[in-house]
Fold this protein.
Amino acid sequence: MENGLRGHTEGRGSNSATSPTGLTPGVKIPTTPGLKRRLTRRISYTPARYKDDDEYIGFATLPEQVHRKAVRKGFDFTLMVVGESGLGKSTLINSLFLSELYKDRELPSVNDLIQRTVSIEKKQLEIEEKGVRLKLTIVDTPGFNDTVNADDCHKALLEYVEQQFKQYFEDESGLNRRNIVDNRVHCCLYFISPYGHGLRQIDVETMKKLHHKVNIVPLLAKADILTKQELKAMKDRIMQEIEDNKIHVYEFPDCDSDEDEDFKQQDRELKASIPFAVVGCNTVVEAGGKKIRGRAYPWGIVEVDNPDHCDFVRLRQMLISTHMQDLKDVTSDVHYENYRATHIRTQMSGTQKERV
């Protein structure tokens, strides 16, 4: 089984050698339609540069003003988690945000699973890091694909996403627009089972229903059960099926040309990691005299925070450190604007029919 652990490292290298996306040549990844975006991570303005400049006016401090205002106001982010029971969704969320959001959850019995329907559960968490406050909303979907007939699983998800668009539209069109709460879903982590041979029909149908409403980030759950060959084959097959079914997943923006080479390399690795092969764990084990987060097996230890073992670190980097604002921008500029245009068009069409 040591090969299974080592295989993740070699699989990553094999991915990079074949193509920048880890796919076979000629396969194009379908992406979220939208505006051309650039990934920018820092503000290069420094006041000292202009202190003694006779032509200095002062508006170069605008980025700092915006930054201070944004920090005072805080940030909102809504994350939807979709996948059947047993794929480690709760554990992964706890690992991502170093919290215990689901410590009181009880596993459903067999009888509960037979009659279970998809429900929506919201949990909110306020996090502060270096003076920056984040109001995080986790939208869980227990019951998804847990029944024998799962044809209508996507309906509850779609209704929830559209309801948040509708509520935001009504608040935006109302009299008091100063304190609008943004509950729109900014990202959907879609968990794919590692036990099959790629995407199942329920996965294809659900993602096709959601991909024009929300940013979908596909995850390959429980990646530690796969060897290096199985992991690479599964990733390639999933991306090929996403391409064949014309499913639009979240498109990573391009880096600015003036970014350093290390940041560009990180961006290339993120794009090549789709779908992210993740392992969630909050258990601390001891290995080599050090305490690490990981899963202990008779053949060795899978370290969650080791990028050679799984893509958890890359997912966390993308979701929290580098692309959180872009996920919000795409939600606002693309998905919400599409809903808004359709809604207004429908309203105008109904008004014209009444006049006739």
Observations:
- The chain has ten helices and eleven strands.
